[in-house]
Amino acid sequence: MPNKTVSVWTDNHFWKRSAAWVTGFSAILLIWLTFDTMGQITQGTDVDMQKDAEGLYFSKRVPSATVINYKIGYEYSDKRGHEVPTINGKETFFGRDDYSEEEAAELLHLGKLGSQAKNCMNCHTLLGNGAYYAPDLTKAWLDPKWKLMMAITQKKTREEAMAEFLQHPSKYPTHARRMPNLNITAAEAKGLVAFLKHMSAIDTNGFPRNFGKKDTTLRERSAK
Ligand code: HEC
Q1: Which residues pair with 23 in a beta bridge?
Q2: Which of 1, 148, 206, 218 would disulfide-bridge 176, Cβ 3.0–4.6 Å?
Q3: Which whole-number Å values give the CA distances from 185 to 32, 79, 168, 181, 210, in the listed order?
Q4: Which of 108, 113, 123 to mutate for ligand 1's pocket (most ligand atoms within 8 Å of CB)?
C-alpha cells in the first residue's frame, strides 16, 4: 500500500520513539531530584548553626543536633506563606547550653533509638508518618501546653516537664485518650526530649499548619 498515508497515532515507530524519550527524560529528572533532595535533607553542622544564630531563620532544613542549645520558635513567614522554624538565641537544655556536636548527636541518637524501641509511631505520627491514635509529634516541643504541664508537674523548665510526662504519662492526662506508661527511663526521656526538640526545628514547609495557634487538646475543646 505505497500510497496510503498512515496516521501518526497508529504508527508503531512513533510510540517506540516516544517511550524511549519519556523513559530517558524521567530517568534524568529522577536523578536530578535525588541529588536535589539529598542537599535539602542533609543535616547542618554546628558551624551553620552558629552563623544562623545571628539571624532568625535556619539555613538548613535539618539543623545540627546542637540546635538543643538554642531557643526555637515557629513563626509565619510572609515570603514563604506558612510558618517556619526560627532561632531566637541560646537557651539551656537540662541546665546546659554548651552541648558539643558529639554530645548533642549522641543524645539525639539515644532519642531516635528510644522512639524506635518504644514504637512511638504505633500511636503517633512523626513528621506526618505513623498512626493517628495520638497527636502528631513533629512540633510537640513547641506545644503551648507544656507551660501548663510545668505547673502541674512542678518542674521549672519545659524539657523537665516533658521528661516527667514521658516517664509517667498516665499520671498527667491531657487529652481524652491516655498515653500508656512505656517504662521510659530518665536517660531515655532526656534523649527523647532532645529528639523532639530537634524535630521541631526541622523545616517542614509549614507542616503542621497553625500549630499551637488553636486549641490543641480535646479536653479544652469539650470544655467549651
Ligand atoms: C499506645 C499508644 C502510644 C504510644 C506507643 C506512645 N504514645 Fe505518646 N501519646 C499517646 C496518647 C493517647 C497521647 C495523648 C494523651 C495525653 O496527652 O495525655 C500521647 C501524648 C504524647 C505527647 C504529648 C503531645 C502533645 O503535644 O500533646 C508526647 C510528647 C508523646 N506522647 C510522646 C511519645 C513518645 C516520645 C513516644 C515513644 C517513646 C510515645 N509518645 C508513645 C499515645 C501513645
Answers
A1: none
A2: 218
A3: 44, 43, 10, 11, 32
A4: 123
Nearest to 139 by CA among 81, 92, 198: 198
Separation between Cα atoms, residue 64 and residue 66, nearest integer Å: 5
pLDDT of the residue at 182: 96
**How close is the Cα of 32 to the center of ligand 1, in Å?**
38
* pLDDT tens per residue, range 6-28: 788 999 999 999 999 999 999 99
Supply the DSSP string of 141-201, one letter for each residue: GG-THHHHHHHHHT-SSHHHHHHHHHHSGGGS--SSS-PPP----HHHHHHHHHHHHHHHT
Count the neighbouring beta carbons within 10 Å of the beta carbon of residue 29: 10
pTM of the model: 0.88
